[in-house]
Design a protein that fits this description.
heterodimer; A: Phosphorylase Kinase, domain 1; globular; B: 10 helices
């Protein structure tokens, strides 16, 4: 084979190799990489999020601008910065210290598949937990933005669905006007939590002083996360008239669900509030490993049943 | 069922559900009755039906790469699916779909996703339909009010009173925002799965 032909063949092979590996083009190798790429993506648009829980669905459309480590929702109604949240103009919450958390090894990822979404090149990733399909994520190749996500419960049923309705790869950043009178609450680390170090595969990453003298424990498995607020002894939450009363493992909890999160309240020796995004089967497993509610005979439960049946 | 009592042309978002056989009790009679007397809605219904039928009968043919179009439709596909594009644009998309395998795939996927969403129990269809309203200045108004009412209900539920049982400590009224904000601030440094880590139950205000 002549040198010229050798070069042509080599060039052809290189071309084929390049074509074969051109999609996906996101610079990520594993699930953790993809998630971190998505976290840093720059994009804007409208996103619908739908969650179904016990036969009830919640849906909401958000307008988001995601620029690096800041996400602005609904034109400044809510702003999340890296470690700093401003819930409204004039202030927010600052977190100066946190532990880095790794993705749990219970999650694996199928080979990414090239797809199109909103007319854009994308890759679809299937996330598995053991043999169960736990989630799919469709990521924009150009920006690494999550264009669509699906989360499934332990039975494989769709639990949360999210998709961009329109997409802007070059959004104008939302300018946050900060004033001299802005007030920020600093989350102070503490070692006071009596909650377990792990629960159903989730690790307690950090503990902070919480609102109203509560103690805030933050748990994560690297994919989902939740916080548990342990209220001070003797304190109780009231006014949850519209919260569903649900029974998990024979114990009663109060539950609120939105399109993108869940709030669960219960009373044991002290009262607890869980806030998070974990799927139903995970929630059930987590609750089983946390301090349990008092028996059904407690005063509030009796009153509740007496009034509402 | 706000759709049965509001303005005369209030079935825009119900027509798509009608074609999917997803109408709830009472809605079917309303749609049929309205279509019997509203020329505009009959026309829109026909366009929608034709678009949906066309989507489902599009052949999945292999198109030679050289013949494949060099551009693709994005959000227009969703509007196309709802029959909300102007006639000229509707025709353009339809023609494009004849030769663009990628857009056809996306359209089928989009159609399947929307059917899946509609099949979710208790979901408010107008939330989906509303997507195109701003873009095309739709003529109809739907049951979005129900979603707003739902949001208001959740917001009302979010107000929490903290009382110290059995003590003389005065009751303190707080709202879930305090807890949610602290959770979200911590979650914001995570690379996990949450796609909207910014808002709790809709409009949490005390």
């Amino acid at each position: 084979m002549s040198t010229a032909r050798h070069l042509i063949v080599t060039a052809a092979l290189v071309t084929l190799a390049v074509v074969a590996t051109a999609v996906p083009a996101i610079a990520a190798e594993d699930l953790d990489d993809y998630l971190r790429e998505a976290e840093q993506a720059e994009y804007g648009g409208r996103r619908i999020v739908v969650t179904v829980w016990d036969g009830e669905s919640q849906a909401e459309i958000f307008t988001v601008i995601h620029t690096g480590d800041t996400m602005t929702v609904n034109g400044g109604e809510s702003i999340v910065g890296y470690g700093k949240l401003a819930g409204a103009p004039g202030g927010g919450v600052v977190i100066p210290e946190w532990s880095s958390s790794a993705l749990s090894d219970r999650y694996t990822m199928d080979q990414p598949e090239a797809v199109r979404r909103l007319g854009r090149e994308a890759v679809r990733i299937v996330v598995r937990e053991g043999d169960t399909k736990r989630a799919t994520i469709v990521l924009d190749v150009e920006t690494s933005a999550p264009l669509a996500t699906e989360v499934f419960d332990g039975d494989g049923a769709l639990f949360r669905y999210s998709t961009m309705l329109d997409f802007d790869a070059d959004p104008a950043p939302y300018v946050v006007a900060r004033g001299a009178d802005d007030e920020y609450e600093v989350m102070l680390p503490t070692e006071a939590s009596s909650l377990p170090a792990t629960a159903a595969g989730y690790r307690r990453a950090d503990t902070y002083a919480g609102p109203n003298d509560s103690v805030h424990a933050f748990y994560t498995d690297g994919l989902f996360y939740f916080s548990i607020f342990e209220l001070p002894e003797g304190a109780r939450l009231g006014g949850l008239d519209d919260a569903a009363v649900v029974e998990v493992g024979g114990s009663e909890y109060r539950r609120l669900v939105s399109s993108d999160g869940i709030w669960v309240y219960w009373e044991g020796e002290t009262a607890y509030l869980l806030v998070g995004d974990l799927p139903p089967d995970h929630l059930e497993q987590v609750l089983a490993e946390l301090p349990q509610p008092k028996g059904k005979g407690n005063l509030i439960s009796r009153l509740w049943r007496g009034i509402f049946g | 069922m706000a759709g049965m009592t509001s303005s005369p042309c209030d079935i825009g978002e119900l027509m798509s559900a009608y074609l999917d056989g997803e109408l709830q009790a009472g809605e079917l009679d309303h749609v049929v009755e309205h279509l019997g007397g509203c020329t505009d809605c009959i026309l829109e219904f026909r366009h929608l039906k034709e678009a949906r039928a066309a989507v489902r009968t599009l052949p999945r043919l292999e198109v030679p790469e050289l013949l494949a179009p060099s551009f693709h439709f994005g959000p227009e596909l969703s509007a196309y699916l709802d029959g909300e594009l102007p006639t000229e644009e509707q025709t353009q998309v339809f023609s494009h779909l004849q030769t663009c395998e990628e857009c056809r795939d996306e359209l089928h996927e989009l159609d399947a996703a929307r059917a899946a969403i509609r099949s979710l129990p208790g979901l408010e269809p107008p939330v989906l339909i509303e997507v195109h309203r701003g873009r095309h200045e739709a003529r109809h108004f739907g049951r979005r009010g129900r979603a707003v009412a739902l949001a208001a209900g959740v917001a009302a539920a979010a107000v929490i009173a903290v009382g110290v049982a059995g003590s003389s400590t005065p009751e303190t009224t707080i709202d879930l925002d305090s807890f949610t904000n602290q959770h979200v601030a911590r979650a914001s440094v995570e690379a996990g799965f949450t796609v909207i880590p910014a808002v709790g139950p809709v409009g949490l205000e005390p």
